[in-house]
Design goal:
The chain is an all-alpha fold. The protein has twelve helices and no strands.
């Protein structure tokens, strides 16, 4: 994988960790997730007129991705409510690239080099190591996290292929971002009522714009990278967002880090080095 692709994917991983930390710090995870999704759509709108429309072959992928993104945000909020983030987040983000690496050969007919496969497995091992630091958790939280790992793997495939057939990965990303917030807010209003949702938006709109901009940029960089390198490799490298999340938790949020976190960080860094050398 070229060094410039690796660096851009790592920057996207940093953005991903940042907007996840914003949800973690928020008071209402479901509505904050919806706001960030909406913020991504708002940030995308001004750029649509300057980009070509995705090829017609990409529109079914855009529709499927919207439904999967809706499920993703709902499962993220549900899993964070049910269990410790130290258990939930590594399982969600760590199992997804494992699923992709295990299936990309017969789904996309991609062949990973020995170095890429070893780097992918090393990063996944580092991510899953974080689960050992969790002292609290429930079967329900684990089931939600594993279900979301399947959703993440599925939309990675959908969007990876969709970006390739769209003719323009950036255009695909921006158009793909428009429908999920419509679904999320329709669902929120049906469950909470328009007044409660409007009040939350009134006081937290800035969270949506900042997090949404980071979210759309992060995913756009990943989809662009998938047009330049194997989907499984990009998906694994993107999960280094957990390493950035660990740094944010210690430096910014002043959380105590267990030895498992430091071990996981070292393993993830090693996996990134193996990917570079492979």
């Amino acid at each position: 994988m070229p060094i410039h692709v690796i660096l851009l994917v790592l920057f996207g991983a940093l953005l991903h960790a940042t907007w996840n930390a914003m949800i973690k710090a928020g008071t209402d995870k479901s509505l904050d997730a919806s706001l960030i999704s909406a913020g991504g759509a708002v940030c995308a709108l001004p750029f649509l007129m300057f980009l070509p429309l995705p090829n017609s072959a990409a529109w079914p992928f855009i529709g499927a991705s919207a439904v999967l993104q809706f499920a993703y945000f709902q499962l993220v909020a549900g899993a964070y409510r049910a269990g410790d983030i130290g258990l939930v987040y590594p399982l969600m983000r760590g199992c997804a690239p494992l699923l992709i690496a295990a299936t990309s050969g017969f789904i996309l007919n991609e062949t990973l080099s020995t170095g890429s496969l070893l780097g992918t497995m090393t990063i996944c091992a580092g991510i899953l190591t974080l689960a050992f630091e969790a002292r609290k958790g429930s079967g329900h939280a684990i089931r939600l996290a594993l279900a979301n790992a399947c959703v993440i793997a599925t939309y990675t495939y959908v969007d990876g292929v969709g970006a390739r057939v769209s003719g323009n990965a950036v255009s695909y990303t921006l158009w793909m971002s428009l429908l999920p917030p419509v679904l999320l807010f329709t669902w929120a209003i049906s469950k909470r009522g328009a007044v409660a949702v409007a009040m939350h938006v009134r006081y937290n709109w800035w969270r949506g714009l900042i997090g949404g901009g980071g979210s759309i940029a992060s995913y756009g960089l990943a989809l662009w990278a998938m047009t330049k390198a194997p989907v499984a490799t990009v998906a694994a490298l993107r999960e280094t967002s957990i390493l950035f999340a660990l740094l944010i938790s210690v430096i910014v949020l002043k959380e105590k880090a267990s030895p498992w976190r430091y071990l996981a960080g070292a393993i993830i860094a090693l996996g990134g080095l193996i990917l570079k050398l492979g």
